[in-house]
Amino acid sequence: MSEAHSDQMLILLGFVGFLLFVIIGVIALSQSKKRKTPILTAETPEHKTQIPKPETTVQSDDSKAVAVEKSEPEVNLQSALKKTEENFFGRIRKAFSNSDKKAVLEEIEEILYTSDLGPTTVQKLLDVVSDQLSGSEMAKIDNVKSALREQMLEILKPVHIDIENEKLVSQMLKKSSEGPKVLMVVGVNGAGKTTSIGKITAQLVGQGFKVLVAAGDTFRAAAGGQLKTWTDRATSEASNEGAVEIYWPDNTTDPSAVAFDAVTKAKAQNFDFVILDTAGRLHTQGHLMEELKKVKRVMAKVIPDAPHETWIVLDANSGQNALMQAKEFNQAVGVSGVVLTKMDGTAKGGVALGVVDQLHIPIRLVGIGEKINHLKPFNYTEYVDSILG
């Protein structure tokens, strides 16, 4: 082999060696990055997913959850009621662009009647605006706003004044000194019962209480599974003392039997709270309403005052239909509180005022988002200020 040929071979070998070095380096760097990135596989059980602390949030689906830095603003009642405010007082502000004050009053009347407040409540507000304000006072929107605010507070305050300092679910339910406190949750399908139960449970467990959730919706095959998903999430919120268990018996189709056995179990095993889910039903289905009455009766055989609380879950988007639901359920089983869901994004948040005015039942909690901590105590002054802008 000539010297020139030998030099060429050395150069070629050196080039090949350099390429191998680069390739090995790229592979090593790629493997290093993979080791630093946590991977959740299909084998990762959902109940192991950690609910983040306040400084983080969760993006999740049914199979995975990844903690990320919190980047969105805190959801509150004011932001949740933005669309309601635009639909209600925003339209009133627009009405004042008309120089004809008679036309302004007619426009306000129309706005009130189309704001899901209910006719009885609308008439109270309309009387305040038309009777208490003179023509010159009507010319100023601030006077109208002040009159509406005063009347709204007059409707809400008597029902909520004694409970306005109850900021925690445990304060609302008031744990019994002997035996578990029993909460029955009712409402139509799709209102958000299961989701609300999960969020309520998470709060109680996070405060260190022992909670038994009873899957009393025996008609819908997926109901128990959905409830278990939420109780698993509540478990991840638990303190060292708090705990949650779901009572979901196989081959039991009678909701009364589920309720009876759940309360019996909770009493024997020293649970602090029992939360009973019930099958969704239309308020017009009389035979199913009778079934709810039976569920109440059988629980009372174990604990005389059970259920101690009966809360109805209403979808704020239902508007006047939500008011009708509340009336029928209250007549059938005696509702002691309202959980108003999906307040974020709806323009029909005014229904809360109608429910309180016509049924004298307090709004206990409002759902203002999808995350587990987006179920907040209802503050009546904040509510009024939010829809009046």
String of helices and strands: HEEHHHHHHHHEHEHEHEHEHEHEEH
How big a fraction of the residues is strand? 5-15%
The third-level CATH topology of the largest domain is: Rossmann fold
CATH superfamily of the largest domain: P-loop containing nucleotide triphosphate hydrolases
Can you list the strand order of the major beta sheet?
A: 5-4-6-3-7-8-9-10
The whole-angstrom Rg is 29 Å
The proportion of residues forming helix, as a percent range, comes to 40-55%
Question: End-to-end distance, in Å?
Answer: 93 Å
- Poorly predicted spans: 33-72
Q: How many extended strands?
A: 10
Averaging pLDDT over every residue, what do you get?
80
- CATH class category name of the largest domain: Alpha Beta
Class by SSE composition:
alpha/beta
Determine the number of helices (DSSP H or I, runs of at least 4 residues).
Answer: 16
